[in-house]
Design brief:
Layout lengths: L16 E4 L1 E2 L18 E2 L2 H14 L5 E5 L8 H14 L5 E6 L1 H5 L3 H9 L5 E6 L3 H6 L6 H14 L3 E7 L7 H15 L3 E6 L7 H7 L8 H13 L6 E5 L8 E5 L3 H14 L2 H4 L13
The chain binds iron/sulfur cluster.
The site of iron/sulfur cluster has 12 residues, from loops.
Length: 296
C-alpha cells in the first residue's frame, strides 16, 4: 500500500482499511496542528489507488469499511470521490461504507446533489474537526470558517443523508472561558446531531504557531483539572440520543466512552471519580508548561 509522509486516522477507524487518496492536508494551517507540517499536500495518482485496491482485494478481501487518508480527503471533487467509491466497491464487494476526514470548506464546495450522490455511493460517518463553537476561537485556530457556516453545513449533510462524526477540542478557549466554551460546544453538537463526538484536550505541539503564541503569552493553556472540568460541563450539556461519546484518545486524562443518552450518567460519574483520584499537583499542572507554568 502507498502510505507517504504522515498518515493519521481516528482511533475508532482502527479496523478500517486505509486507502491513501491524498497526502498531507489541503489547508495545513490550523494554529495547533502539527500533523502534516512536513508533508506537502498532493493528490494520489490514479494508478497508485488502482495498485492499492488490487493489493487490498487480494489481502483484505472482506474489508467492510474503507477510510480514505489523509488530512482532508473530502477536499477532492465530488466526481473524484464518486470514482474512488466505484473503484472501491468493484475491488472490495463487502465494503458497506467509506469514511474520511473532511473540513467544513470541503462540504461548502459541494452541491446538495453532490452530497446526496456521495451518500448513495457509500460515504458515511465522515470525520469533521469542527473543534469549537465560538467564532473567536475558530479564528484563533485559523480553521477557515465560522460557526454559522458550520451549522449550515451540518444541516446540508443531514438533508443529503450523509452522516458525520464531530471532533471537539475542549479547553481551547482558555481557563477563563471553560463554562462558556462547554455550553457553546454542547449547544452546537446537540443541534448538529452527529453519529459520534470525539473529545480531546488542546495540546500544544512543538513547532506549531500555537507553541509560539503560548511562549509570547498570547494564549493561556488550561491545566489538566480545567480540561476535565470542561469535559464534564460539555458532557452535562449534551441532550443527544443515539450518539457515541468517544473520549478514549491517549490524551484524555480519564478515558470514557459510551452511548448517549444511555451512558451519560455513568460517564459523568467515571470522569468525576477519575478526577478525584488524580493528585492536586497534577490537576494543577499544564500539559505543556508543567506545574511551574514555564514552557518545557
Ligand atoms: S484541517 Fe485538520 S489536518 Fe488540516 S491543519 Fe487543520 S487540524 Fe490539521
Amino acid at each position: 500500500m502507498h502510505y507517504d509522509g504522515m498518515t493519521f486516522r481516528p482511533p475508532y477507524e482502527a479496523y478500517s482499511l486505509l486507502l491513501q487518496v491524498t497526502r498531507g492536508c489541503s489547508h495545513n494551517a490550523c494554529t495547533f496542528c502539527s500533523m502534516y507540517r512536513t508533508t506537502p499536500f498532493s493528490v494520489s495518482p490514479l494508478e497508485e489507488i488502482v495498485e492499492d485496491l488490487t493489493e487490498a482485494a487480494r489481502d483484505y478481501t472482506y474489508a467492510q469499511r474503507v477510510f480514505l487518508v489523509n488530512g482532508d480527503a473530502f477536499c477532492l471533487s465530488a466526481t473524484e470521490l464518486a470514482n474512488i467509491a466505484d473503484m472501491i466497491h468493484e475491488a472490495l464487494p463487502y465494503v458497506e461504507s467509506i469514511g474520511c476526514y473532511a473540513r467544513i470548506p470541503n462540504v461548502v464546495a459541494k452541491t446538495d446533489e453532490e452530497l446526496a450522490m456521495l451518500a448513495a455511493k457509500g460515504y458515511a460517518d465522515i470525520n469533521i474537526g469542527v473543534e469549537s463553537a465560538l467564532d473567536d476561537v475558530l479564528a484563533f485556530m485559523n480553521k477557515g470558517y465560522d460557526v454559522a457556516c458550520a451549522r449550515e453545513q451540518f444541516a446540508r449533510l443531514h438533508k443529503a443523508g450523509l452522516s458525520f462524526n464531530l471532533n471537539i477540542i475542549n479547553a481551547a478557549a482558555g481557563p477563563e472561558r471553560i463554562a462558556e466554551h462547554a455550553a457553546a460546544n454542547a449547544a452546537l453538537v446537540n443541534e448538529a446531531k452527529p453519529t459520534l463526538i470525539f473529545v480531546s484536550p488542546l495540546h500544544v505541539d512543538p513547532g506549531t504557531p500555537l507553541e509560539r503564541l503560548l511562549g509570547e503569552g498570547r494564549f493561556e493553556e488550561c491545566t489538566l483539572g480545567q480540561y476535565l472540568e470542561e469535559e464534564i460541563a460539555f458532557l452535562e450539556g449534551l441532550t443527544l440520543d443515539g450518539c457515541v461519546f468517544f473520549g478514549l484518545h491517549v490524551s484524555n486524562p480519564v478515558p470514557v466512552q459510551g452511548l448517549l443518552s444511555r451512558d451519560k450518567d455513568a460517564m459523568l460519574a467515571r470522569l468525576r471519580a477519575g478526577m478525584a483520584r488524580i493528585p492536586r499537583e497534577v490537576l494543577d499542572s499544564h500539559p505543556t508548561k508543567g506545574a511551574e507554568g514555564r514552557l518545557r
